Amino acid sequence: MKILVIGGGGREHALAWKLVQSPRVLKVFVAPGNAGTAQEHGLENIAITATSDLISFAQKENIAFTVVGPEAPLAAGIVNAFQSAGLKIFGPSQKAAQLEISKSFAKDFMQRHHIPTAEYAAFTDAQQAHQYIDQKGAPIVIKASGLAAGKGVVVASSLEAAHAAIDQILIEKSFGAAGSEVIIEEFLQGTEVSFIVMSDGQHVLPLATSQDHKRLNDGDTGPNTGGMGAYSPTPFITPSLHAQIMREVINPTIQAMAREGTQFTGFLYAGLMITPEKQVKVLEFNCRMGDPETQPILLRLKSDLSELMEHALNGTLDQAETEWDRRVALGIVMAAIGYPENPVQGATIKGLAELHLKQNETDDFHIFHSGTALGGENGQELVTSGGRVLCVTALGDNLKIAQQYAYELAKQIHFKDSYMRHDIGYHGIDFIHKQ
Known about the structure:
Blueprint: E1 2-7, H1 10-19, E2 27-32, H2 35-39, E3 43-45, H3 51-60, E4 65-68, H4 71-75, H5 78-84, E5 89-90, H6 98-101, H7 103-112, E6 120-123, H8 126-136, E7 140-144, E8 153-156, H9 159-171, E9 182-186, E10 191-200, E11 204-206, E12 211-212, E13 215-217, E14 221-224, E15 229-232, H10 239-259, E16 265-274, E17 280-286, H11 294-300, H12 305-314, E18 328-336, H13 352-359, E19 365-369, E20 372-375, E21 381-384, E22 388-396, H14 399-410, E23 418-419, H15 426-434
Helix pairs in contact: 1-11, 8-9
Keywords: ATP-binding, Ligase, Magnesium, Manganese, Metal-binding, Nucleotide-binding, Purine biosynthesis
GO molecular function: ATP binding; metal ion binding; phosphoribosylamine-glycine ligase activity
Cofactor: Mn(2+); Mg(2+)
């Protein structure tokens, strides 16, 4: 069968790479893809972005099902459009995707259904927001309510920073329409983890646990980004905590969505804070797999991803099982200097050719592309075309070994003005050492 993956980032590269490993899958098309997906065996990029054209392509190619990677097409209603055309597509409807599209919708939903989350208030008026901040004090968290590509969150350690964030979002409109409303939340202390599941609307299949590193710089300093690296599994989620997350967050969310007439089919990502008292609180919902969490998670997945997705599309996810590599996977994002605000683009990437050959002969690492394209003088050079350029992902017998291996690989790749953190996985390593 043939599958279509929509998107062009590292998450979509990983999804397409994993799907084509199935003996039942003939080819995976990626729309629009990147230079990495262009070089993978069994994958083919197609330069189509309009929903109507994607529908026509899926019909013409007899695509078995389509997978939506990023949030923007979900927000635009691509799932509804495909379903109206009689096509199978894995992802939530536009209405169900409100869990990510609107943070105020998500917060109200959680409050309504007693799903644990931080205390909050929503504002469209800057003056009222400023008054609320003065009343609550700092530290405090300011979020653009709409989609801001993972960058619309400010953790303000002072009142000055909080007031500046309000002005930036509501008055200066730094995030455009996504910032027409702000959510102001209490600051939660603890450990942030990622918990991603598949849902068919009724049943839930948890994927491997992971932990993302959202801040730009070492030691979790600097601005929030879309993610600078991740690893899986995380030692912070014990079996008892896993059961607690399913009981208090995941199952109530899927069940409540169904009761409200908005069945949720697709990936549900819960960004969670584990407090020192072992309370679980939802920081955010995403209606897709995380990036870069997808890369280490799928490097560990031994099951047939296409079979899991078919179960989800057929409402039989309760019959599906997952098998995982016992090793730890860690992914390091190599970004362009200036990310996340103004990344430098167009630099030639060197050192990948040999690694691409080597990764086809081993199962212990893979270089996933995100912001890459073919360019240069002959049009065949690998060049940077985005903020996050690559995710160097490796397996190791433990977290420390996986970390060392990934950094050894990353050091073999060079492009002008490259940037990466040097401590991905440090939370987990510190936690393990303290046990």
